[in-house]
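The protein record quoted in full:
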Amino acid sequence: MRSPGVHLREITDDDRDAVRALRVRRDQKQFVASVSQSLKEAAKKPEANPWYRAVYCGDEPVGFVMLSWKPPAGLYKGRHFLWRLLVDKRYQRRGIGREALMQVATLVRADGATELLTSYEPGEGEPWPFYRKFGFEPTGEIDDGEIVLRLAFPAE
């Protein structure tokens, strides 16, 4: 199911407050930090080479995505690491997260990547089913209590 009109946009002063106001469901808060927290982490860790965008559906900000985009070798796991993906509770279960992740994967692959990594904290309501359905597989690694996942891009 594709969600029409989903696109990634740079966050500007005009939409920063609206993007920061996005919230996941209460039962998801243990798995994903808020947009404000994510932006603070990005500012504190410039060496991770953070790349982030608001997820829009039409003219409405509905989500947020952040990657560590080709950080210096050895500093972080992988050359492209999905650090944060969230869709506001009002817009979940509409295919928006999947479409945003599809667009991120396309951008990462166009950048020459052979894989996209992410991780999640296991627990009741964890995001593993979402990632598994998308094609991610466990790498067998555990990083800071989180299970590391890999989406491989087959050679063209």
About this structure: DSSP finds four helices and seven strands in the chain. The mean pLDDT is 87.
